[in-house]
């Protein structure tokens, strides 16, 4: 498979695949409904929209989205919308679940629910895929939204999730930079120590399918000039496809810096679940929500074929 290097390429790829049914939790939002409208136009997805029916219908009219009566399912609260959207996926009435205008914590509680959620045996983790101006490839940030302070063991599993995801986008050997505040191992700075351990686990074949290195500062992970200036010699330095961040604070700040200072678009998914799960910020654009749907279509097709 040809490697996907841009979000528009992901959209084009999704258009060639089987459309999926997406269950949206709390769909009463302009940006969500614009993404729904555009995904339907491109025939990459059908939808089941859970939320306040009147509100969904009035916003849909504003964005020129025509809905049939079976596409909207009225719910009385956001929690009910999350539970019902996840249930739709569990009982195979939908293939993908998507966060709408609801807090990530409420949405994730439904996804992670032990009896009624979409857990597998794996650690679930979030990845945000950015097209950043001036960077020559897609940059994956993990985990900016789900694992608050992952342990070393959890970081290994977060890496395994993102490696499989990169493979689904045709990147067979992604370059992964484990980020910290500095690029040397400092026993007083746990992220630097864990980055070194993960690097060694990759070298010894305990984490396969990628080239992992670290610790790196952000500069030398994504800038060849910075890496050369600091005399860092690594296949990954300046060319990272994936940034493993130390914790949710670093990841979420980096995510929102790329959006608000960098003007980047993105796609966001939860990995490791039974079905694709779309999770973006409530404030992300409809373009980013559409790209997320495209990535979910690709992931669904990949999961069917492996
Ligand atoms: C993937 C970003 C998660 C997030 O921060 O969501 P909200 O902005 O909706 O809180």
UniProtKB/TrEMBL annotation:
Stretches assigned to the Phosphate acetyl/butaryl transferase domain: 80-297
Entry keyword annotation includes Lyase: no
Highest taxon of the lineage: Bacteria
SUPFAM superfamilies associated with the record: Isocitrate/Isopropylmalate dehydrogenase-like (SSF53659)
GO molecular function ontology, one term from the record: phosphate butyryltransferase activity
InterPro entries for this protein: P_Ac_Bu_trans, Phos_Acetyltrans/Butyryltrans, Phosphate_butyryltransferase, PTA_PTB
KW Transferase (keyword) present: yes
GO BP annotations, alphabetical order: butyrate metabolic process
Keywords of this entry: Acyltransferase, Transferase
Family the UniProt entry places it in: Belongs to the phosphate acetyltransferase and butyryltransferase family.
NCBIfam families: P_butyryltrans, PRK05805.1, PRK07742.1, PRK08190.1
Protein name: Phosphate butyryltransferase
Organism classification: Bacteria, Bacillati, Bacillota, Bacilli, Bacillales
